[in-house]
Write a structure and sequence with these properties.
Elements (H helix, E strand, L loop, with lengths): L1 E6 L3 E8 L9 E6 L10 E6 L11 E2 L15 E5 L6 E5 L8 E8 L1 H8 L2 E8 L5 E7 L9 E4 L6 E4 L13 E4 L4 E4 L5 H4 L5 H5 L6 E6 L5 E6 L7 E6 L7 E6 L4 E7 L5 E8 L3 E4 L5 E2 L3 E6 L5 E6 L4 E6 L7 E7 L11 E4 L11 E2 L2 E2 L7 E3 L5 E5 L4 H7 L1 H6 L2 E7 L6 E3 L5 E2 L8 E7 L12
Parallel strand pairs: 1-35
Antiparallel strand pairs: 1-2, 2-3, 2-35, 3-4, 5-6, 6-7, 7-8, 9-10, 10-11, 11-12, 13-14, 14-15, 15-16, 17-18, 18-19, 19-20, 21-22, 21-27, 23-24, 24-25, 25-26, 28-29, 30-31, 31-32, 32-33, 32-34
Length: 460
């Protein structure tokens, strides 16, 4: 599967994976021009292919962030690209020529470095640290079992230093993480064992314990795991986690995919941590689908920089939602938009019972292109007015749930946001069609702005 990436304020980088019909091609980093005044608006202006095959580029992170900005020598000029399947980690130079990124000194970290130095594999989330180092969470061990550890990279040489966590402290599963130094805490999430999810989703794997349902609380100073929050069945497969951006805040939100719930986590008066469910998306009773009930499948969440709005995508139901989180314990939906999904009127699925909608949504046609798949990865501009979305989740799951997405390629869209009262509106002038790529349809996943975005920086 050809996977791609997107970047910037006037450009944006997106990780892209080639679709299955052409596995002989490498994944690549795509640079997209998002300047409405440019003659190349909505076009891929550069593609950086990786030097290996079957990497599954997934998420990315910067070498430096706002935590480092008291040091004038630090620049956000390298993009770290972990490969979810191959376990390679690429370092991309986006500073020399932002419109034409290149591999940094042809530098990439081979899987053997993670295996032998850390006993870890399947790297996922990358965050820069205030120390200048880079930390990457992992999902597995070299045998494909679940293992939630953390790899430290040198911020200058990009060599593997070793594990961040203390020996024996790794979590049973891993995925995403976010740290908050003022509260001496980091919290990580769980997806599942790589060997279970590699060939698609099997509900039986949930019952046999191959997927997670816990949050892990870490002491930021000692690197020890000090608490585990079991979210129960309602919190199965907790994926993206976000603290509020305010560095003094001791709370945030996590999206749980399987039961389509949002949990708020918070520091208690006793100074330990707890979690409570604050949003529940009802499943829909259906026929013509794999199961009698279809969850929304919350796959990505983010919080606006002013900590006022929470956004998330329901990849199966096909909608993006915007919630006012001014009252942290009682989020209020203020925006919703449908962009594809599995319950469309002209599709094979018939909705028998729906607690939210009176009718099934209509297909989304944008610039003559039918949107395949559902809204997945989100990225919000710093001013909160432009929400970008791509439609690929993970190639094995894309193939299982949205085979037409694999055949026709994913898209990148822009949602215009009402930052006053709330509201989401599709920008009908914006479409990046990764189905029309020179080497065939591609699956675009995560997006990054070189100038900064709402999921990059963590303030000290």
């Amino acid at each position: 599967h050809y996977k791609g990436a997107v970047t910037s304020a006037l450009e944006t980088h997106c990780q892209t994976v080639l679709t299955e019909h052409d596995l002989a091609k490498p994944d690549y980093l795509a640079t997209v021009d998002i300047n409405p005044q440019s003659p190349n608006f909505c076009k891929v202006i550069h593609r950086l292919p990786m030097p290996n095959l079957k990497d599954e580029l997934h998420h990315s992170g910067w070498n430096a962030c706002s935590s480092c900005y008291d040091d004038p020598s630090k620049r956000r000029n390298r993009l770290i690209l972990p490969s979810l399947i191959s376990s390679r980690i690429y370092v991309v130079d986006v500073g020399t020529d932002p419109r034409a990124p290149r591999l940094h000194k042809v530098h990439f970290i081979e899987p053997i470095d993670l295996f032998w130095k850390c006993g870890l594999a399947n790297p996922h989330t990358s965050h820069c640290l205030g120390s200048g180092q880079i930390m990457i969470s992992t999902m597995g061990d070299p045998s494909g079992n679940g293992k939630g550890g953390f790899v430290l990279l040198d911020g200058k040489t990009f060599e593997v230093i070793g594990n961040w966590e203390k020996p024996g402290e790794a979590a049973p599963f891993g995925y995403d993480f976010w740290y908050q130094p003022r509260h001496n805490v980091m919290i990580s999430t769980e997806w599942g064992a790589p060997k279970a999810l590699g060939n698609g989703f099997n509900p039986a794997d949930v019952k046999t314990g191959h997927y997670g349902q816990r949050l892990h609380v870490w002491d930021w100073t000692t690197h020890k795991r000090i608490q585990t929050l079991d979210l129960g069945e309602e919190g199965a497969i907790p994926l993206e986690i976000r603290f509020l951006h305010n560095p003094a805040a001791a709370e945030g939100f996590v999206g749980c995919a399987l039961q389509s719930t949002i949990f708020r986590f918070y520091k208690t008066p006793k100074r330990d941590w707890a979690a409570e469910k604050v949003i529940q998306i009802p499943s829909k009773k259906v026929e013509g689908w794999a199961l009698p009930e279809m969850p929304g499948l919350i796959t990505d969440i983010l919080i606006s920089l002013d900590d006022r709005f929470l956004y998330f995508s329901n990849w199966l139901h096909g909608d993006i939602r915007q919630y006012d989180i001014t009252d942290r314990r009682n989020p209020r939906m203020v925006g919703q938009i449908f962009l594809g999904g599995s319950i469309l009127k002209d599709g094979p699925v018939k909705v028998l019972e729906d607690k939210e909608l009176n009718s099934q949504p209509t297909p989304r046609i944008l610039k003559g292109k039918r949107v395949q798949g559902g809204p997945q990865m989100l990225q919000l501009s710093l001013d909160g007015r432009r929400l970008y979305v791509t439609t690929s989740l993970y190639s094995a799951w894309d193939k299982q749930f949205y085979p037409d997405l694999v055949k026709e390629g994913s898209v990148m869209m822009q949602i215009d946001v009402d930052t006053d009262k709330g509201g989401l509106k599709l920008n009908k002038n914006f479409l990046v069609d990764f189905g029309a790529e020179p080497d065939g349809p591609a699956l675009a996943h995560e997006l990054r702005y070189p100038g900064g975005d709402c999921t990059s920086d963590i303030w000290l």
